[in-house]
Amino acid sequence: MSATPVGDSDMQADVIVMGSGAAGLAAAIAAREAGARVTLLEKRRSLGGTSNFIRGVFAAESEMQKQQYIAYSCDEAFRNFMEYNHWLGNARLVRALIDRSAETISWLQARGVEFTEVTINMPDAPRTYHVLKGIGRALVRALARAAREQGVDIKTSAAVVDALRGADGRLRGVRAKIAGRPVDIECRALVIAAGGYANNREWISKYTGFELGENLFPVGNAGKMGDGIRLAWGMGAGAEGMGVLHLIRIAPYGREFPLMNVVEAACIQPALWVDPEGRRFCDEGIAFYDTSTGNANTRFKRGYTWCLFDDSIKRHYIQKGVDRGMTQRLLPGHRLRDLDEVLERLLALQSPNLVAADSVEELAAKMQVEATVLSATVAEYNEACAKGRDPVFAKDPLLLRPLLGPRYYAARARTAFLGTLGGIRISAKTEAVDEFDRPVPGLYAAGNDVGGLHAESYSMRDTSGIASAFALISGRLAGENAAAYAAARQGGEG
Hints:
Elements: E1 4-5, E2 11-12, E3 15-18, H1 22-33, E4 38-41, E5 56-58, H2 63-67, H3 74-84, H4 91-99, H5 101-110, E6 115-119, E7 129-132, H6 135-149, E8 153-155, E9 158-165, E10 171-178, E11 181-186, E12 189-192, H7 201-208, E13 217-218, H8 227-234, E14 239-240, E15 245-251, H9 262-267, E16 272-274, H10 290-297, E17 304-310, H11 311-319, H12 339-347, E18 354-357, H13 360-367, H14 371-387, E19 408-420, E20 423-424, E21 431-433, E22 439-445, H15 466-493
Parallel strand pairs: 1-9, 2-11, 3-4, 3-12, 4-8, 12-22, 13-19
Antiparallel strand pairs: 5-7, 6-7, 9-10, 10-11, 14-20, 15-19, 16-17, 17-19, 18-19, 21-22
């Protein structure tokens, strides 16, 4: 999309923010607190987008951590993050993110956001995960309230469709559709925080090789078409990180499966997983690490894994509880007391995505895999369980539980993702830059619209909550720097 010359404007602002998720709201507040006149444009009817589903925020050296004697320094977090990503990320951007993480928790609290605790969301991880009270919806409400109270002009059903340039070629405003009506808004700086391209079938296919709705399923995303990325590219910004996905657990998906149900909770446990041919392919203990689970499953372009368990494992989940949690209400040790009832109700629907049988051979037939292959897989796995050692994938012996019947269950679990993690190349100041790192004057970007943070995988083990933290911190940086740029331009024009 090329920038359009500006004519007469209908409205004016110093800074326009495109998008109302955590990044957009943080940018709008930061720009307003820096003295800019700010208009926030959200193309959907409601605010927040995927940020409504945030559950926690990363920080290192926060006051909450200090109060709990949690020692995890910014230096440690930086080293761990960069090593995880093999130093492919923008190191100065990563450092800015981590160094401002603790102060951002305090900044959020001062604007009405509440946290309940600092914890982990996977084994052996540093305690960096600041759990939100009321999850993301409460964060969005608090930030939207703070923005409005400070004078940010928030407009919904307002889609940015183009950038406007003056005779000198510099950004002069945007063209938007507000409630279906074309409107030109003059501005000196633009912050793009539109949330990525998770719902863009063409781009997902082009950049990742997956097909939305077939072998890849977005969770909590709607209307994410890459509008902001496309606009920035049209203004001369470079591309970075296209194709990087925020992969999460594999789970049953389909109309017959309610979101976050107990069958899903059973299927994400580290029991026995097999590929579409019925062969085991990983240490199921990676169930505790969403990125690893998603990566292992993406090897199969058919996009699914079969999760197997039997009556004895089912009883374990009902009587002793699950090993892996799923939500703040379903933590490790939670007993799936209604698993029997929900299983039978879903099995009665005769979905090909959930099957049960009285023998492994019959189960294989319902899964449409070779009975000899699945039987050999189960036999090999049961032998490992009996010996207490997995000679193939070195699974933790504590998680080795045999499948002995008398009834066997299998659920087809597909790859899910929370969003895309690339698009616009930016500087450590969140300026949109070209492929040679030259800034595009007046253009800033934040959150899931930008690349340069992650390598090929989402970094969550040592920096739990980093995606939401990056949205908030990059948004604040973008708002601050956009306001400073707008003020400098105003001074130059004066």
